[in-house]
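Appendix B. Raw example, untouched.
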Amino acid sequence: MQQMTPTQLRDHLETASSMPQLIDVREPWEFDICAIDNSILIPMGQIPAKIDTLDPAQEIVVICHHGIRSANVCRYLEHQGFEQMINLAGGVDAWAKDIDIDMAVY
């Protein structure tokens, strides 16, 4: 698993030849407050049931509130054979502070 700060992820998204899949593993009520553009919601508890909807060959960025749940999901997916996992260090909270200062926080 690769760890990226919000600044590193922003730069990566701007230069990537192919857009990574952005998976937000928070709960729906959290996602309703704030979310990174182009991210899709799959709450952490639903990842095992939805694993077949993910492409193990695609680069996947996992996002949560502070980076803890997303790191756990990255490790789980790696154990399932996913190789291109990126964890957003600091989560959407850090993204809001460093990248999108207009984003709601909680």
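End of appendix B.
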